[in-house]
Write a structure and sequence with these properties.
The complex is a heterodimer of chains A (92) and B (421). Chain A has 92 residues and is mainly alpha-helical. Chain A is 36% helix and 4% strand. In chain A, helix 1 (8-17) packs across helix 2 (24-41). An 11-stranded mixed β-sheet of chain B has the order 1-3-2-4-6-5-10-11-9-7-8, sandwiched between helices. At the A-B interface, helix 1 and helix 2 of A face helix 6, helix 7, helix 8, helix 9 and helix 10 of B.
């Protein structure tokens, strides 16, 4: 079990997967903090195997149409809408 | 005197009549209120107005209650001090200059200041019990599935429950009765196997329960908190309980397992914030990826970014086995350990928090210190169990909480024991 080292490039990669832009200060600070936090998570290596006991049942309802939000309500917080649809930024 | 307990003071009127007639309820700002802004303490959701009520809000209004405002909180529930709110920190009415605890710090402060008698919080890893302890009020984290999460803005859905906070145990029991119960809109809600608790359990009397104290939850507890806890245990013995020390080795890894699971769930849940359907959107230009990244960088605060990134990492290819799977193993180990322990004792007790309330600003730049401070509260979230924080005081008069933990669906036992203090 070794201390994970976390470079700024590693943080940059995590940020890109999560769609979050970080500035240089945040990159440096997160790299230091993540090394400490991930090293603390290594304690989980000591956990023994335990059999899983599941005693819950799935809850289902019949597949019928029920009342839900109207289209106007669903669009009421949208930054942009067109012809009853959400409108987002261009894909490519 | 204002403690910045509320983000907004808009009211919602009752729709019926019942147990909450004439009573005002403060509501944490991550619980959806139709027509009333719901921010989660985040710039990301500033201006967001839900088109529907959470089930708990419908039930409060039907029972005659008035929603009297939305309370401040750590951003998306991520914090232990209410200092990560985009709307500024909340002050502790019962410990001036100190944090109110978090993440439901606004609800606790609204109760502690006398503004309201009862409030709703939510508890993912202690977010009801910590601020209850730090502000000197009662707070209950119900059994997972007892209270509908429909309309609760998700942070870590396998861990969180909405629950009551109150100035007195009768108020807490009444609000719990109103909000609990099965809901077809939250498939994780369940009916309890036996009679449900109600306020008739506030008797002030005990039928000789055995209360175990897990020694792992006393390690490193500050002296003033330990003194207050010892006095509380002496009180419980005086009213008929048998108090005994027990050991639960799985507790040694509970807080690590909690943070891995909570961060993983957060990274997935908060992926929805792209400013298209709701949430912060500026006049960014560029393609889909860069626009979303810009919006999320502006909309989220630092603690939220930290947890999303760590959760993304722990779920990424090559690391899932090492972090997420091991954390789930730890969760199963803890559940099995609690089950076995409840064959020997009726309840468990510990200090709610290992320290008195922190001075404002002291811990906000040290995430590890704050994560470790949640050590005593996170185990019940992992194990789906109910727990209550009962208010008491340290020798120098600062608020301290006593945590009592019960088997699943035994909220009535917790309320009965709390009513003897």
């Amino acid at each position: 079990m070794s201390d994970p080292s976390v470079e700024e490039d590693d943080v940059r990669h995590m940020a890109s997967l999560a769609h979050i832009e970080l500035d240089e200060d945040e990159l440096a600070r997160f790299a230091d903090q993540f090394a400490e936090i991930l090293s603390w998570f290594e304690m989980l290596d000591t956990v023994p195997d335990v059999d899983e006991a599941v005693d819950v049942e799935n809850v289902l309802r019949s597949d019928t149409v029920e009342a839900s939000l109207t289209q106007d309500e669903a669009l009421s917080n949208a930054s942009d809408a067109e012809d009853g649809y959400f409108r987002g930024p261009p894909v490519g | 005197m204002t403690h910045n307990a509320f983000i907004s003071r808009q009211q919602a009127a009752p729709t019926g009549s019942g147990k909450l007639d004439g009573i005002s309820v403060a509501v944490k700002d991550n619980i959806s209120t139709a027509g009333i802004e719901t921010t989660c303490g985040s710039a990301m959701l500033e201006g967001y107005v839900p088109p529907y009520d959470a089930t708990v809000i419908e039930r409060i209004k039907e029972a005659g209650g008035t929603v009297t405002g939305k309370t401040n909180m750590d951003e998306f529930g991520m914090g232990t001090t209410t200092e990560t709110s985009a709307f500024g920190p909340t002050e502790n009415p019962n410990a001036p200059g100190r944090v109110p605890g978090g993440s439901s710090g606004g609800s606790a402060a609204a109760v502690a200041s006398g503004d309201v008698r009862i409030a709703l919080g939510s508890d993912t890893g202690g977010s009801i019990r910590c601020p209850a302890a730090y502000c000197g009020v009662y707070g209950l984290k119900p059994t997972y599935g007892r209270v509908s999460r429909y309309g609760l803005v998700a942070y870590a859905n396998s861990l969180e429950q909405i629950g009551p906070m109150a100035a007195d145990i009768e108020g807490l029991a009444t609000l719990f009765e109103v909000i609990c119960g099965r809901d077809t809109r939250d498939a994780t809600t369940v009916d309890p196997p036996e009679a449900v608790s109600d306020s008739s359990t506030v008797t002030g009397e005990l039928d000789s329960p055995t209360i175990g104290i897990p020694t792992e939850l006393l390690e490193g507890v500050d002296e003033p908190v330990a003194t207050a806890f010892d006095e509380a245990m002496t009180h419980l013995e005086a009213v008929g309980a048998t108090v005994t020390e027990v050991s639960l080795p799985a507790l040694e890894v509970a807080v690590q397992a909690y943070y891995v699971i909570a961060m993983c769930e957060a990274s997935s849940n908060l992926a929805r914030y792209d400013g298209v359907r709701y949430g912060h959107a500026g006049d960014e230009t560029g393609d889909w990826n860069s626009v979303f990244a810009d919006r999320r960088s502006v909309g989220f605060g630092e603690e939220v970014k930290r947890r999303i990134l760590l959760g993304t990492f722990a779920l990424s290819a090559g690391y899932q086995e090492r972090y997420y799977k091991q954390a789930q193993d730890a969760r199963r180990w803890l559940i099995a350990s609690f089950d076995a322990l409840f064959d020997e004792v009726d309840l468990l007790a510990s200090p709610t928090m290992p320290t008195e309330p922190f001075p404002l600003g002291e811990t906000i730049d040290d995430p590890m210190r704050l994560y470790k401070a949640d050590r005593n509260t996170v185990p019940v979230n992992l194990a789906n169990l109910p727990a209550i924080s009962v208010p008491t005081e340290s020798p120098r008069g600062l608020p301290v909480g006593i945590q009592l933990i019960a088997p699943a669906f035994s909220e009535d036992q917790l309320i009965r024991v709390a009513s003897t203090f």
